[in-house]
Amino acid sequence: MSDKDNIVINLKDLPKVGVCYGKFLPPHRGHLYTILEAATNVQKLYVVVSDNSNKIDKLCKEDGIDVIPVALRLQWLAQQFQDMDHIKVVVLDENNMGDDENSWNVWADRLKDVVKEHIDVFYCRDLDDSRRIKHCFKNTKVNLVDRNDTIFNVNSSEIRKSPFKYWDYILGPARPYFTKKVLITGTESSGKTTLTKSLAKIFNTSWSEEEGRYYAEKFLGGDENYFTDEDFIRMTHLQVEQDYDAMRNANKICFFDTDATATQYYSRLYMGHENKIVESYINPDKYDLVLLLKPDVEWVADGQRLNGNQEKRERLYLNLKQMYVERGFKNIIEISGDYNTRLNTAILKSMELIR
Ligand SMILES: NC(=O)c1ccc[n+]([C@@H]2O[C@H](COP(=O)([O-])OP(=O)(O)OC[C@H]3O[C@@H](n4cnc5c(N)ncnc54)[C@H](O)[C@@H]3O)[C@@H](O)[C@H]2O)c1
Known about the structure:
Blueprint: E1 17-22, H1 29-39, E2 44-51, H2 53-62, H3 70-80, E3 87-93, H4 103-114, E4 121-124, H5 127-136, E5 141-144, H6 156-161, H7 175-178, E6 180-186, H8 192-202, E7 207-208, H9 212-219, H10 229-248, E8 253-256, H11 260-271, H12 276-281, E9 289-293, H13 310-326, E10 332-335, H14 339-353
Parallel strand pairs: 1-2, 1-4, 2-3, 4-5, 6-8, 6-9, 7-8, 9-10
This protein binds nicotinamide-adenine-dinucleotide.
């Protein structure tokens, strides 16, 4: 028996071009299953993402979430399949197309402009869609996938309404969008870093560490007297990158041990002025909750900290608080009391976000 006799199928015997289409609002494992099922049966698969802003706006509004723009849905799917070269993610403009029987002809024409090669097979679940597609595309097959939702019994609307109930179904790249973001902030020695880590551990999720804490050690020979404006910009940029990584690994909620407002506060302290570029990184809309820690726990000098005098600690705290308020941060909760009280208050407040 030759090696060839053991081959059950040759790639070139598979249909050349397949298409899966949808809104993917958001993409979930049912979609993934349909796409991968299709991808094992064709040489090249197009995943066609619908761009229909009126429809998408309406659905998101009805389900009480912010609009998920097409650019994000495309990015999520592109990330999901970035290591699978035979899967191409493309966008189809479905704006102003109508919703009647004739709109399927318009849809088909627009699709032919996007997928310029002959489509051998469509993959979908809906019997009516199948009939319409066959009418619009000659010499094209339609394969129905998991019509009864037996494998992943979920749909996007349920996810939009209750993302945390259906968390396990949401594809990884889409999860940061639904993740609740909690900023833990405060002046020096307020127990911020320990609280951030404790919260992340108790919620079984990720956290983003404060870059500034290690910056002088890593880049300035440990001497904070050598800071320049450039260092504050780099710190802010590194922080954004670290936040991004933390969000990609988050489990429903993510904790951030600082933000660009706090870096700006340190620019004021060390450099004596605000930094324009750091300011441009400040984003009040990023966070669902801000836990602002009061300086009413003991001062712990760790070699990096400056301002141990209690009267000064309180003044600096008020300065920092004002910076958040002036920049429009919402849902700021001041946390005080002993370490145990702080932990429990923070847990309860965070838990409310993912109910
Ligand atoms: N107006 C028109 O004439 C016309 C014509 C054709 C297509 N369209 C567009 O096509 C899109 C179809 O959207 P949709 O609502 O089916 O998209 P969707 O994002 O909900 O689903 C995408 C694909 O995944 C499949 N799927 C969904 N949940 C699944 C699960 N749990 N398990 C397995 N597979 C699952 C769907 O059947 C579909 O084939 C719409 O945007 C619509 O506007 C419009």
